[in-house]
Amino acid sequence: MNTAKRLADAEKPIAQHSAQFTDLIEKVSKIEQNDKKQISHLKEQNDQHMEQIDALKRENEKQIGKMLGLKEGYEQQITNLQEENQQLQTQVNSMIKRHEQSVTEHGIQKDELHKYQQKIKQLESEFQAQETQLKNTKTK
């Protein structure tokens, strides 16, 4: 009987430990299931975030492409405007030079005109004097 009692006494802790072990296994199983759900949920969120990141990257690349296109267009416009400005500056310089030449020629022509006007006045004066002299000679 002693053996039976010892066996019965030994079975009690084994049964307790077995029940605790079963409880722990159930807890571990529940924790693993919960962890799997969380991992699955986090993977879904991660996949969604990665899709958003990829979409943002594509949009960013499109925007960069548009900006580069605009930049090239603006640079071309600037180049065209600089060339046009250079052409206009050349035209202005040419017009200034022609104007200066015209002013010089005008001054020369004005001087010549004044000289000819003086010559005409002198000739008219001489003519008047000769005409008067001629009249005086005829009347004598």
Structure description:
- Residues 32-140 form a coiled coil.
- Keywords: Coiled coil.
- This protein has 140 residues and is mainly α.
- The protein has a domain at 1-68.
- The chain contains 1 helix and no strands.
- It has one helix at residues 2-139.
- It is rod-shaped.
- The termini are far apart.
| Series of H and E elements | H
| Gyration radius from CA atoms, angstroms | 58 Å
* Count of separate DSSP helical elements: 1
- In percent, how helical is the residue content? over 70%
Strand composition percent: under 5%
**Structural class by secondary-structure content:** mainly alpha
Summed over residues and divided by their number, the pLDDT gives a mean of 94
Low-confidence stretches: none
Largest sheet: none
Gross morphology: rod-shaped
First-residue to last-residue Cα separation: 200 Å
The total count of strands amounts to: 0
Task: Detail the topology: elements first, then pairings.
Elements: H1 2-139
Summarize the structure.
The chain is an all-alpha fold and 140 residues long.
Keywords:
mainly alpha; 1 helix; 99% helix
